[in-house]
Amino acid sequence: MSSVQKYAAVNAKVRALKARLLRDEDYKNMLAMGNEVEIVRYLKEKTAYNHVLKDIDPDNYNRQDFEFCLRKAILDDYEKIIHFLTGESKQVLKVLTMVRYEVEDLKLILRSISRGEDPGEITNRFLRKESFTGVNREELVKARTIEDFVERLKGTIYYRPLKTLTQEDMEKRQFHMEMNIDNAYFELLFKHIEKLDPEDRELMLMQVGTNVDLQNIHFIYRALTFYKLTGVEIFNYALPFGYYLKGKTLKRICFSGTPENFMAEMRSTSYWSLLERGVSDIFMERAMSQALYDNYQTVGSMNITQIIEYYHRIEFEMRDIISITEAVGYGMEYNDARKYLIRRI
User: Fold this and answer.
1) Predicted confidence (pLDDT) per residue in 226-270, tens digit
2) Fewest CB within a 10 Å sphere: which of 50, 73, 187, 316?
3) Nearest-CA neighbor of 269 among 286, 292, 248?
4) CA distances, 140 to each of 29, 123, 143, 180 (Å)
5) Cα–Cα distance for residue pair 132/184, rounded to 1 Å
6) CA separation (Å) from 114 to 76, 139, 182?
């Protein structure tokens, strides 16, 4: 099947979805609101989010319900796009979207058990019950120990990498388990990327690999600054799927030892422009996200890039909406609130 045949219909659908994204003017209007209720009302009455928020009463605003509706709407959009795809392109998008949200659910359950809470109380925060990887969420929430949680994952991609961690020190175990869950997710994603047609495969290896690079940069910086992990630990838990930062380069950065040496190592990489003004935890994450936001811009190509661009733009828009509601809720000034956004306003 030619690229035109494969992507003509789905790209038309993606363009229609992109037309509903917020404008700069919408961002500015929301930043100028007096409270969260006004933002929710604006989104419901003035933007394409009206259908998403149809069951939300702004006057009885609940942040958790609001954010759940946003995430549910995004997954609904992904399902519409997946409907138009076939073959490995379909599988890649399923992993990129559905499995990624499954990973977030697994982490929620894991954290709940680690805190001694009842995981059954968070089932209303799950966006989907179906699983691409065989995970049974209804069984998982019955677990009361980490060991039981892991055993209920038997037969899935998560079982083997988590099984070896059940005897670890409690302080490190949750962190290591979450890293291994992420690793299993990316291993599955790249397994399907490798099966794509050559043009799509190279595009995805570069785009997702760049995403992995940026995640690793953020992780390594945090590991050196806050967690005080050893070079061996950092290297073992860094994602080995990067595009530019891999092999000896990645190992050298992981073993840099201090935040200062980390910065010195990063100077020779293509990502130095993101870090040269200095770093702080929240603004580094913002810089990483902005780099991804700027990287995903297409001009009508008949390949997988338009789909991936929409995936990132809608995800970043959701994060920005949540950031705006939080900033306004905390009474932040307009110019200060802008600093926490991914989109440049």
Assistant:
1) 888 899 999 998 999 999 999 999 999 999 999 999 999 999 998
2) 50
3) 248
4) 42, 10, 6, 17
5) 13
6) 31, 17, 18
